[in-house]
Amino acid sequence: MPKPSPVTPDAPAAIPTPLLTQQWLDLAFIHWAVEPDAVAGLLPNGTVPDTHDGVTYIGLVAFRMHRVGWLRLPGVPYLGTFPETNVRLYSVDAHGRRGVVFRSMDAARLIPVVMGRVGFRLPYLWSRMTVRAAGDTVTYAGPRRWPGPRGAFSRITVRTGERIEQPTELEHFLTARWGMHNAFFGGSGPPAYLPNHHPRWPLHRAELITCEENLVTAAGLPAPTAAPVSVLYSPGVPVRLGRPARPAGIPTP
């Protein structure tokens, strides 16, 4: 398999003509370490788990999506603005491109959920989500509405701390992911790769006050058995998404 691209806090390439623009705001990044073999079978054909020091990670990322816009059009204030909570894994393809694979994407707007499922084949789910800030704490909560499974929910509260001036390589590995792998075009072949571009993450230390959820197991992943190895917060960044590049390629020995 080709060597993965370096872990870098800066996007490898600009996206002058974006497919989508948006802002990701008030993000909580919660991560558990897991053995690669435990999740390898859940990644798309043509990708393998991306690892750091021999392990990979399950990510639970809660945030506010803000003003999604198509091409160079202005972002949509209502339908394009909603809370979202993602369960994701970390992938690499035969070209060495590091990315994420979404196992579930809970969002509070039904129309974007349907568009994401039908138009992009992404695992969007309709949830009754809210994001509330009070002082230095932020709470993300919501039960899932459709399509299930029934009883899936999350309630996460983090207390934000000081700005991280020099993030570690692991913190860059978990947050600076410059694309996603997904079967945008359908079929059983290798997935496509959709790149993204945004400024370097402003990251803060965070304390996990509450983490009551079953989204991880609902996404088919092993239940966390220990405390998260990393909890981070970011006020957010503006984002550009490029067009899917097909195919991602199949890793070879």
From TrEMBL:
InterPro entries: ADC_dom_sf (IPR023375), DUF2071 (IPR018644). PANTHER family: DUF2071 DOMAIN-CONTAINING PROTEIN, DUF2071 FAMILY PROTEIN. This is DUF2071 domain-containing protein.
